[in-house]
Amino acid sequence: MAEIISSFWGPVTSTTDCCEKNYAYSSYIAEFYNTISNIPTILLALIGLISAHTQRFEKRFCVLHLSIMAFAIGSMLYHATLQHVKQQSNETPMMWEILLYIYILYSPDWHYPRTMPIFLCLYGAIFAIVHSVLRFGIGFKVHYVILSLLCIPRMYKYYIYTDDVCAKCLARLYVATLLLGSLAWLSDLVFCNKISSWPINPQGHALWHVFMGFNSYFANTFLMFCRAQQCGWSPRIVRLMGVLPYVKIQKPKRQ
Ligand SMILES: [Zn+2]
């Protein structure tokens, strides 16, 4: 892709380069919209973190929100610089996040509860090392999709066993944002040549970031609701400032 302003970070070394024109607005930010579009994800994860921490949810949910913030910050670094090492600071936390989802979804029924976190931590650590050495390209994406697919049957099970209308609505919003985000991401990828000739670029990849920020928030809120129900904490979905849904719990007095 042609560079208009001189680039502070040097030549592009990342394995993927999105449709947005590089260094169009600043010599310090390679892809401006793809960088700033990660801010909603960070803010939503921060709201989730405060909600999980102040209501004393299990630590796994705080770690989950923190890992989403880490990967959004990694994504900002990557899109701002288009350097391979920053690309990994985006991809490696993505992998940790999906391992956390597997833990949250499957640990309540796991026969050996102590071995599961050890196995997943080792898996995440070994992946980070191997990925930094071998620099998986398409291999990373295939691996990520396979792990994501593992989460779907359990998410579906939670969905059909939940009676709460508002919680079910969260799960539907999760699917809707995933579909809209994927559509935006694919359009940016497939129709880049056409889009580049348009007077205004719709910034499909930046839209994907925004949709996926909400997607993670809805997924986490739904999982917090399901977990609170399992623990008998009488959860209900309320709205922050009348808009953003979050889980309010009432723990029994003896706890
Ligand atoms: Zn991105």
TrEMBL record:
InterPro entries: ACER (IPR008901), ACER_plant (IPR044219)
GO MF entry, a single one: metal ion binding
GO BP, sorted A to Z: autophagy; ceramide metabolic process; defense response to other organism; positive regulation of autophagy; response to salt stress; response to stress; sphingolipid biosynthetic process
Record keywords: Calcium, Hydrolase, Membrane, Metal-binding, Transmembrane, Transmembrane helix, Zinc
Stretch forming the signal peptide: none
Residues noted as binding Zn(2+) in the record, renumbered to the chain: H79, H205, H209
Protein name: Alkaline phytoceramidase
Organism: Glycine max
